Structure formats: C-alpha cells, structure tokens
Amino acid sequence: MNADPRILKGVNAAVLTPLNRDMSPDIGRMTAHCQWLLANGSDGLGILGTTGEAQSFTVRERMDILEGLGKAGIPLAKTMPGTGAANYVDAAELTKHSVDIGAGGALLLPPYYIKGVGDDGLFVSFDKIINHVASNDLRVYLYHFPQMSGIPFSHDLIDRLVQAFPGIVVGVKDSSGDEQNMLEMLKKFPGFNVFPGSESAFLNVLKAGGAGCITAVSNVAMAAAQRVYSAWTNEQRVDQGAEAIIQALRTVIAGYPLSSALKALMARHHGDEGWDGVRPPLVSLSEQQRNELFAAIDTIDYAIPAV
Amino acid sequence: MNADPRILKGVNAAVLTPLNRDMSPDIGRMTAHCQWLLANGSDGLGILGTTGEAQSFTVRERMDILEGLGKAGIPLAKTMPGTGAANYVDAAELTKHSVDIGAGGALLLPPYYIKGVGDDGLFVSFDKIINHVASNDLRVYLYHFPQMSGIPFSHDLIDRLVQAFPGIVVGVKDSSGDEQNMLEMLKKFPGFNVFPGSESAFLNVLKAGGAGCITAVSNVAMAAAQRVYSAWTNEQRVDQGAEAIIQALRTVIAGYPLSSALKALMARHHGDEGWDGVRPPLVSLSEQQRNELFAAIDTIDYAIPAV
Fold first, then answer.
1. CB-CB: which of A86, A124, A280 is closest to B88?
2. pTM above 0.90, yes or no
C-alpha cells in the first residue's frame, strides 16, 4: 500500500480558509497561502478540515474552494480536502467531486450528527460514499476526531473498511491526541497511513512508521515541521531545535481556538486585517487574547518565514 | 407572547420520515402518516427533527419534503420543521424556505460540528439566520439536544436571543431529558414556549406552564398523548390511564434507537415493510430486536389506533 505513488506522505498543513468581508471564502488569499506553504516545505495541503472550518461552509462553497484553487494553479493532486458531512449524500457528492477534479485524497469524517450509532451503520455510510464515487483514483483517509464529531472510529470498523476497500481506504488522520491509538493502528493495519493531527504525537508516530502529519500549527510553522520530518525520514535523526519550536508553538496556540489564533497570526504576519475573519460559531480573538497570544509567541525563538 | 395565534401549542409528533427503497424520502407515505397523526389528535407536526433523521438529508431533500407535504395538502402552518444545519448558510436558507412556504415555526439546532464554542459565536449564527429570513412571520424554536448536537443552549444565550428577537425567538424544544432545565426556563423566560422532547417530562412541564410536547413516541401514541394534554389543559386533571400508556411505551421504545424502533412498529402496524428503512448511520432493527420490541409493546394495554 505504501508503494502507491498517490499516497500523500510528509508534512501537510491543515490549511486555513481565509474569508472576504462578507464571509465568503477568499480564494485569492487562500491560493497565496497554499503557494506560500508549498514554497516553505509543505508536502501536501490538508484543505477544508476542521482548522479550515469546512463544516461551516455549504457543499457548493466547498466545491468552489477546491475548483478555485485548481484554477489558480494549486496542484490539486497534493490536496486532501475534507469531504465529510453530516449526511452521506453530501459526503458522497463532495468526495466524487474531489476525485473528478483531481484531488490526491479525501479526508472523510463519519456522519456526525446522530451519536451513539454502531459500526454497522457507519460502515454502510462509507460503503455508499465509496460506491457512489466508483473510482480507482479514490484514496480515503478516515478523519478520527471524536472531540468534534462525537463519533470515534473503532479499530473493528477500520479493519472492516480496509478489508472491504483495499487500496481505497488507505489511512487515517487522528486528531484525538491519543498517541497510543495511533501507535496501535500502525501495528494493527500494516501499510496504513497514520497522520497525527497535532504536533504532540508527530515525532513518536513518525518513528513508529507514521506517514507524516496534518496539523494546524503548520500553517505558521511549516518549515520547522518539515525539518523534523526530513531529519527523521532521511537520516533517522531528531532535529531537536525544530521539534522544540513546533512543540512550543503548539503549546501556546492550543490555548486559543485554533482557527481564530492562527488567523490572527496570519493577519499580523501579512499586515492584513482581512485574514482575521472566521465563520460563526467561531469568533475572532479579542484584543486582549490577541495581545497575549502575540506576546507568548514572541518569546519563542522563531519567525514565520517571509516566503 | 402566548397570545400569538401562530404559536404551535399542544401535542406534536416528532414525525418519522419514511423512505423509498433507494433511500429517498417517501412523500406519499409521509403524507399519509401526517394525515393519520392529525386525525388522531396531533396539534402540530414536528417534521424533520432528530427522529425524522433531518440531518441525514441534504438541504434540497429537506426542502423537497416540506414542499411535497404542502402540495399533498398537509397544512404547513401546523408544521415546525427542523431547519438547523452544521453551517449557518444552509440553516438560513432552510429557515427562509420554511417561512416562504408557510411553515408555522422553525426548530433550530445550533451549528453543531465545532464543539466548545462560546455563546458569542452562537448568537452571531442565529443573528445571521434570522436576519437572512428577515420576516415577521418567522417563529424560531431553539432545539436544545446536547446529547446529539454537543452544543447546549445556556440560559444566558437564550436570554440574549429572546431580548434581541422578541416575538421571533418564541420557544424551545428541550430533548435533553433534564426536567429541571425546562422548569427553570419557564420561570426565567415568561411566555416562552417550552416543549419537552420526550414523555418523561411532559406532564410536569405542562403543569408548570409548558406549551405541550414534541415527541417521537407520539408517532404511535398520539391519541394517548393528546388525552394527557387535553385533560390537564381543559380540566386541570391528570388522565392517569393515558399517562401510564405513554410512559410505558416510552420506557420500552427508549431501549432501542428511536427512529428504527418506531419505523419497525409502523411497518408492523401497516403490514408494510417499506416503512422499515432508515438512512445510515442508523440501521433497521435486527430480527431479534424487532421480536423483543414487539413482545414488550404487546404487554402494554394499548393499540395503535386504526385511524
């Protein structure tokens, strides 16, 4: 499975979705941000995940974002858009659209409104989505984020999906923060591509055979995250300096709503207040939060790279 | 506020959404079910709530259901469709559509994917929805169901919404099962229309000034629920027999996934297996569950009315 050239390895930013003043997605700013991430070492682009506020956009808006990035020249083969939704019909349409347009992978949340459902119903949801897409080009990454979705992926369910859709269900983004769960998945599912959703588990999971990471903090710390990844992957060496930077950034930023904090940092970096908008139910940081965040970040020996 | 003739009082079924074999909504069966409920004492129709699997349908499907019922002659002024969604844009469109087509009220979930958000962002979401609809005909009922949405309505938020939108934000459906919360809302917000989402709190909340109920079990026990409501409302009398029936039914049915159990009961009642389908992530009851459910229901001195 790992030999599949389509598999997105390495460091992926959980890309922010900048907004226009009317709260519509700002494709221009987003394209520039994606280019900047790729220029600074991003192997791929985890667009429209939780950090990218995907579930705060409509199906049409999400398709427009992906199409807009493609038209602007972002290599969609490097993107892994979140295509999950509360209902399987929207998820199936979004996933099909992402494959049709050439996205490298699809990050799939389980249907997440009804809680307490069993694996059988979740399996049927994925079965319907995958059969609707009906393409060998589909690469599904399961999006395990029980703190948001309320629906954890059991290992039994993952096993059923991997068995039923070999070469299609190829990995997981685990945003639970539960490092033990990630290490267990690597053991149980040979060749499964496990992407931690935060810096905390990144290095340990990488050492155990992880595929890389898809993280929010990479929006501002891509170069350092790539140094951690490359040092280990190419030389089995821990880049202590880079690792210290991403851990320190994570520790500070995790004290705030992630998308709001990262957008505040982007706004400051670019001197562009337009970066600051988030969609409700998120709100932008208050003046006080912003000042505290900036002060804390500035104690870290780190500068967001200019390019 | 209670003098508003638009307010939906009394017993409302949380109406099931029957499906065709291809999982599309079956408007014909649903129309017949609504007619049957109204003929058996339903004051209103809580369509497309959690029992109606609303979040498992697309925006277009949800609009089609409402339009289909209207065309088939169901009095939409008696309906309170769920119009909430994970994103405020879809919720705004659904709510506007429901008002434009003449629905009596709109049952609004908070945006429910991102957890841990504060009241400010939730307020902005509702503000955007209500301003998008921009109609004095809008009557919003807040849908408090933290077990599913993960987003409780704080009393502070309710207070802000009632103050900001008097005559528009007029009530709540509380499916939390927390009777104390319902009684407190009645005290804190004079004239607020509090609908318990299950039989357990129905009578006590009614005695304290509650507006009625919107419940899943009413799909099969409408006549008994209406007897409880009418006896108290008209004569301040508790109909012990009817109350015992709805409590007993609730106790049995709550041991199963509600929509699946109720659809199984409808399928048996009508001798119509087509009633049995649910959308994933729900699954239909197993043969064993079905047999156990039917056996338990049959110990209750109760028959689903023929008409």
1. A280
2. yes
* Burial degree of A262 (CB within 10 A; 0-12, 13-18, 19+): buried
Question: Quick check: B147 contacting A, CB < 8 Å?
Answer: yes
Q: Which of A58, A257, A282 sits opposite B89 (nearest CB)?
A: A58
Max mean pLDDT among A2-16, A21-35, A289-303 falls in A21-35
- Min Cα separation A83/chain B (Å): 14
Residues of B in contact with A113 (CB under 8 A): 50, 55-56, 86, 112, 148-149
Q: How far is CA A211 from the centre of its chain?
A: 13
DSSP code per residue over B251-301: HHHTTS-HHHHHHHHHHHHHT-GGGG---TTS-PPPHHHHHHHHHHHTTSS
Q: Which residues pair with residue B19 across a beta bridge?
A: B25
A20 to chain B, any CB pair closer than 8 A? The answer is no
Residues in B closer than 8 angstroms to A148, CB to CB, are 113-115
pLDDT of residue A1: 43
ipTM of model? 0.97
Min distance A113 CA to chain B CA atoms (Å): 6
Q: Which residue shows structure tokens 């929509």?
A: B259
- Which residues have C-beta within 8 Å of that of residue B27, sequence separation ≥ 6? B64, B65, B68, B69, B72
Question: In the structure, what pLDDT confidence band is assigned to residue B303 with cuts at 50, 70 and 90?
Answer: confident
Quote the minimal CA–CA distance from B50 to chain A in Å. Answer: 8
Q: Which residue has the tokens 């998308």?
A: A259
Contact B148 A281 (CB under 8 A): no
B-chain residues within 8 Å CB-CB of A280?
A: 88, 111, 121-122, 124-125, 128
| B5–chain A Cβ distance below 8 A for any pair | no
Which pLDDT tens digit goes with each residue over A249-274? Answer: 999 999 999 999 999 999 999 999 99
Among residues B222, B10, B216, B224, which one has the least CA distance to residue B104? B10
On the question of pLDDT at A304 being above 90, the answer is no
**B6: Cβ contacts below 8 Å, ≥ 6 apart:** B77, B104, B105, B137, B139
> Once rounded to an integer, what is the mean pLDDT over residues A200-221?
97
Which of A90, A125, A280 lies at the smallest CB-CB distance from B281?
A125
Is the pLDDT assigned to residue B2 strictly greater than 60? no
pLDDT tens profile A81-131: 999 999 999 999 999 999 999 999 999 999 999 999 999 999 999 999 999
